[in-house]
Specification:
This protein has about 270 residues and is mainly beta. Helix content is about 10%, strand content about 25%. The chain is built from three helices and twelve strands, in the order E-H-H-E-E-E-H-E-E-E-E-E-E-E-E. The strands form three sheets. Strands 1, 3, 5, 6, 7, 10, 11 and 12 form an eight-stranded mixed sheet that branches.
Length: about 270
Amino acid sequence: MAQTVQVVLAAVLVSIGVAAFVPFEVRQASSCAAAAAQCRFTFEGVSGLYTLTPGVTGKALTPKIILKKCDPSLYAAVRAEISVSPSESEAPYLPTPAVSPANFETPTPTPAVSPANFETPTLTPTPVTSPSNIETPTPVSSPSNIETPKPSPAVSSVYPPECTLGDVDETLEAYFLGANSTSFVLISQFEGPSQAFSPAFFKAFPVLGIDGYWGSGVGHEAPQGDQADYLSGSCAVLPLGEWQEYGPDGLLLNIGGGDPFTDCVAFAVA
């Protein structure tokens, strides 16, 4: 079973001597590509900027979110600092003391039933069912009618590979760049639609990755009013608030408190 470790990414990076990412005000980015270049995350199987096509709400519309670059030293440092205390289930077994023969009371046997008082039951034979009343069983389906089950997605090992993302438990409010805008703003502050976008308009939803492991992709809420008219040709940068990363040997890091301007994933909207 994977071991879960709560960490704050910034603190871990400092403790192991890894240079922190340079803060970047995404509001100052003039293009979607410039903002995406500052994000540490991208989408599985995608090179360059991914384009999200609005569609069904309440589900992931993108591939799984992944790290752009893997740093195994992060997991090695965390593993070295973990001290696992034995659980109660690992305590030595102590047998219960046996009952002393001196304190053991011999049970009084129950008197046996006297043969003279025993009444022999009368047995009435049950008539055998006639062969004419036996229902013929239904023939077994031929092999041509049997559907072969589809195999589950294969995985390369018992544990996910290093730097594989698990669930994204929390996303922050997205930064939004409209088709005719010159700078990013929080999506709820974007001016134009008759009804403002919700701060949680873009969010994470479960999705099965190409590698056979579950993670999270990006989807959206149902557009309200004329909001859909402002999505086409736009760009969004979605910061991740809390997420999971798998290290070697099943080590699972629950990470939170990252920089919203670098711990993010960017995408264009069709």
